[in-house]
Amino acid sequence: MFPVTSFLPCAEPIDQLACFSTRQKYHAKTYVTGLVAASKKTAQGISNHVLPAKSERALNKFLTEYN
Predict the structure, then answer these.
(1) Rounded distance, CA 18 to CA 48, Å?
(2) With the C-alpha atoms ordered 42, 47, 53, 54, is the resulting torsion angle positive or negative?
(3) Which of 2-37 are b and which e, b meaning 16 or more Cβ less than 10 Å from the residue's Cβ?
(4) Taking each helix axis from N to C terminus, what angle separates 56-65 and 22-37, rounded to the nearest 10 degrees?
(5) Cα dist. 36→9, 16, 21, 29, 67 in Å?
(6) Can you give the residue ranges of every domain in the chain?
(7) Of 29, 44, 59, 62, which sits 20 to 30 A from 20 (CA to CA)?
(8) Full DSSP string of 28-40
(9) How far apart are CA 55 and CA 13, in angstroms?
(10) Tens digits of per-residue pLDDT, 1-55?
């Protein structure tokens, strides 16, 4: 399967959310894109398949530690 090199259009509404910081929006768009496009729906699978992902650790922190 080819890696995803940009966020999918389904992740664009996340930019309208005022409750997220810029960095949190980036991780949320990575997560949504990964859920749609990645074959493995884990933080590691998403960070390996979606090229804009910063790292598995950053994505995991976003999913577990932010409100």
Answers:
(1) 28
(2) positive
(3) eebeebeeebeebeeeeebeeeebbbbbbbbbbeeb
(4) 110
(5) 11, 20, 23, 11, 23
(6) 9-65
(7) 44
(8) HHHHHHHHHH-SS
(9) 23
(10) 788 999 999 999 999 999 999 999 999 999 999 999 999 999 999 999 999 888 8
Report the residue count for the chain. 67
Looking at the DSSP bridge assignments, the partners of residue 4 are: 50
Over residues 39-48, the pLDDT tens digits come to 999 999 999 9
Taking the model in full, what pTM does it have? Answer: 0.89
Q: How far apart are CA 18 and CA 35, in angstroms?
A: 22
Q: For the purposes of burial, counting CB atoms within 10 Å of the CB of 52, is it exposed (0-12), middle (13-18) or buried (19 or more)? A: middle
